Amino acid sequence: MSDVVIYDTSILVDVLRTARQLKQVESISGLLRTSAVVLAELWRGATKPSERDFLYALSRKYPILTPTKSNWLESGRILQAIRAGTGFAPEKLRDMHFDVLIALTARSYRARLITSNRRDFELIHGFRKFKLEVW
Fold it and tell me: Which one of 35, 78, 81, 130 has the fewest CB atoms closer than 10 angstroms to its CB?
């Protein structure tokens, strides 16, 4: 069985805006899936027709994985533990919420999550293990 792979927003933004990691993205083997949370983040920042076209194509080409009710509830508990352990301000926790949901969705599907956001995802990984690859 092939490895399931989800790209985090940070990787896809890089591909869209600079293509710096395009060759690395194209070389990945496995079953590519898209996170509904990643798509939401990308839509929020899409400003060009080419970016919107990319998002429509991404939505059509790859199955979309969504956080479950359990993922949502667990995300709050993880963020509470992160706050208790780090003292992060509510604004930082709000910024991290989508990352926690992306990580928990990947974990639910036993998917490998590929990101360039080392700091936040390694912190989340310390509270809940999931397959993480940082570029």
Answer: 81
Q: Please, are residues 113 and 80 in contact by the beta-carbon 8 Å criterion?
A: no
- Assess contact for 71 and 37: CB atoms under 8 A: no
- 3 state SS of 97: helix
Radius of gyration of the chain (CA): 15
How much is the mean pLDDT over the chain? 95
Q: What is the pLDDT of residue 41?
A: 97
Chain center to CA of 13? 11
Our measurement of the distance from residue 73's CA atom to the centroid of its chain's CA atoms, rounded to an integer in Å, reads 18
User: In terms of Cα–Cα distance, which of 23, 22, 37, 52 is closest to 106?
Assistant: 37
Phi then psi for residue 16, to 5 deg, are -65, -40
Q: Which amino acid is at 108?
A: S
Q: What are the pLDDT digits (tens) for 75-128? A: 999 999 999 999 999 999 999 999 999 999 999 999 999 999 999 999 999 999
Q: Into how many domains does the chain fold?
A: 1
Q: What is the domain range of residue 78?
A: 4-134
